[in-house]
Amino acid sequence: MLHPVIARVTDRIRERSAATRATYLDRMARAAKSGPARAHISCGNQAHAYAAMTDDKPALAAARQPNIGVVTAYNDMLSAHQPYEHYPELIRTTARRMGATAQVAGGVPAMCDGVTQGQDGMELSLFSRDVIALAAGVALSHNVFDAALYLGVCDKIVPGLIIAAATFGHVPAVFVPAGPMTSGLPNDEKSRVRNAFANGTASREDLMAAEMASYHGIGTCTFYGTANTNQMLMEFMGLHLPGSSFVNPNTPLREALTVAAVERATAITALGNDYRPAGEVLDERAYVNGLVGLMATGGSTNLVLHLPAMARASGILLDLQDFEDISHAVPLMAKVYPNGLADVNHFHAAGGIGYMMGQLTDAGLLHADAKTILGDGLRLYRTEPKLRDGRLAWEPGPVTSLNDKILRSAADPFATTGGLRQLTGNLGRGVIKVSAVAPERHIVEAPCRIFHDQHAVKAAFKAGEFTTDTVVVVRFQGPQANGMPELHSLTPTLSVLQDRGLKVALVTDGRMSGASGKVPAAIHVSPEAAAGGPLARLRDGDIVRLDAVAGTISTSATEFETRPLAIADLSHNSWGTGRELFENFRRNVGASTIGASSLY
Length: 600
Prior knowledge:
Structural class: alpha/beta
Largest sheet: 8 strands, mixed
Low-confidence stretches: none
Number of helices: 22
Oligomer: single chain
């Protein structure tokens, strides 16, 4: 039996999206109707597409064998993406063995938010999602592919690739992960050194040593931020092979899973008997399952932006109320940093995603009949991959947690709700993640301090200006103002104030990192200040109340609604570090409540 809240939210999404989804499915059906596109393009077109393919040319020209397009986000700047360097060779070799062919269709940009935190480049970060979708669209526009493999892991990359996969929804899609780096310096120790540096009790040499020991090798950063939340989503949404998300790079099992992903892609094209176009997998059930996974794992708040944008590409309309209702129904089953001490390797060892999906399915909290790249239903996603005598096999996963300090059952969770709250009030509409926030900090009411950038907050901190309870308001940080950068570099500063015994909170129309959470933060507040939102009416000293229990964010300031709007000088956001190139994005971006995308 499906849980009544999950059923109700799904029905609401289905009804809300009826017209847009019908239009989308009609377009995908028309795109698929004529069969493999390369059979219908001219000989000259085909000759250009196959010119460099040497021994594969006869098979490609015959158009009777699957041709797999590879869209890769490989670069050396992201440790999570560096392993992709050699994937194309393995993919081509495997495809040939399967009687198919494979071509790298194109590359997409992939920036590292860890490098750009607190820097000007972070103002390009959110918009890079749309650029990735556009670049992947260019790659697939050659129209010679029967299925696509998407190589991407990190923050904006997977959402951008999903938007592209949905746009080319008549083409089957398999997402291929690269895995997390092995565990290094524990995340709580890294956080301790960061706070000590912010407090002036650790040197820059101490800080550098801690950071290098934490981010020490290839693979995804091991905390449960946006990148690893993306990997969880792809498994919950049926686009990864079961159990593949958190297998470390450059291991025999990792290679075997990549080979299996290629094999699966060749099996689900329109040329065979198990055609599974991406647009059919990415239906309302898949997105609801993704929302359930987000809440059950305490995942990144960045997905509150990305999931609506991804869903719109599939003709499906999500609302913040959907997140709120599912959060209330889904228990928090995992404690992974920042809402625990474990990292994703520990989580995986404790039973990981397979254990969680089994528990959530049995509790009626997942659409067990959802279509996936493997079949109709989630049964296989309860299993885990193993190498037996060099051969890949999926075996039953654990039915009990192997470490109940990290992973618990749905019946005995860490919390009865997923920890994400919608906030509404006379300051707008936003969200707060409370799964890592101590209960005594769920309500903060204090005078506010107004800032127009994060650097000014740090300067005020260094000047000793925070001596009482304070709600720090950082406005003009929304997508129209400056691209909605993450304000993660404020976390050590605000944490130090909290450690000093002050009640502090952050209120912003910007974002926080997926790794943030110990300081209460009302984020994504919409309408944003640059669009005339109510944050622009606040003044220093106004009493602001952030109440995560009641789900409100408000001020008691008198005559608040009639005040003139503050106007910020945003000219410095429009140039330098490539920001000139993104003016059209800032001018045309939608509200954060519907995904902050310039594409819709």
